[in-house]
Amino acid sequence: MFTRPRRWATARQHLDTLCIAQPELVEAILSDSHRVDELFKFMYKLKTKKVKAGRNPGGLFLKM
Fold first, then answer.
1. 7: phi > 0 → left, psi -120 to 50 → alpha, else beta; which?
2. Chain segment 24-55, per-residue pLDDT in tens
3. Looking at the 3D structure of the chain, how many domains does it have?
4. In 17-62, at which residue ranges do the beta strands (DSSP E only) sit?
5. Which of 8, 24, 35, 51 could form a disulfide with 2 if both were Cys (CB 3.0 to 4.6 A apart)?
6. Of 24, 33, 23, 25, residue with least CA distance to 1
7. Domain interval for residue 15
8. Which residues contact 45 (CB under 8 A, 6 or more apart)?
9. This prediction's pTM
10. Residue 24's closest CA among 54, 52, 62?
11. How many angstroms separate the CA atoms of 29 and 55, rounded?
12. Three-state DSSP class for 18?
């Protein structure tokens, strides 16, 4: 798992926001620092409207 608890907790909140709750997916994302970095980049782009997710932003993140 992640060594920085605060960053890990924030990443977990982002996954909850994206409705990604399947334990295998959550574990795969949170156990890889590169995937966590990509999650933060995706959330930034989503919030600044640089990426348009339509109805399912979680699905778009998983696809990317």
1. alpha
2. 999 999 999 999 999 999 999 989 888 887 78
3. 1
4. none
5. 8
6. 33
7. 5-63
8. 51
9. 0.84
10. 62
11. 21
12. coil
